[in-house]
């Protein structure tokens, strides 16, 4: 199961990157003015920084929870959806609202893009592993009562 280990490591790595963004959002929101929303820095204020940090902390928690067990359908789906939301958000900011240059949006777009593709492509693989392990656990639990009855 090397791909499961790789996904888990990737999710922890992304969570650590997101923790950095949480710090920046809470304590140094001005960083977003010059390095992220470089085309319209006037729109970034302390409230935006804290809001961004809150959302990012939530998605960081999702990454860590999914890294712990990527085979739970609801957790996997919520984590995948958080990457899709990030991808859509940054794409819209670049193309529609023009608050970010492609250069400043490149890192979040790359992380969200890779994660969305990886998790989307692996949806059946990782969740089928869950079905297989649940089936083997169900089979073991069905045999347990018979063993207990024999004693």
Q: How would you summarize the topology of this molecule?
A:
Blueprint: H1 2-27, H2 30-35, H3 46-68, H4 73-95, H5 102-121, H6 123-150
Helix pairs in contact: 1-3, 1-5, 3-4, 4-5
Features:
151 residues; lipid biosynthesis; single chain; Ergosterol biosynthetic protein 28
Task: Explain the overall architecture.
The chain is an all-alpha fold. The protein has helices at 2-27, 30-35, 46-68, 73-95, 102-121, 123-150. The protein has one domain. Helix 3 (46-68) packs antiparallel against helix 4 and helix 4 (73-95) packs antiparallel against helix 5. 24% of the residues are buried. Its main location: endoplasmic reticulum. Keywords: Endoplasmic reticulum, Lipid biosynthesis, Lipid metabolism, Membrane, Steroid biosynthesis, Steroid metabolism, Sterol biosynthesis, Sterol metabolism, Transmembrane, Transmembrane helix.
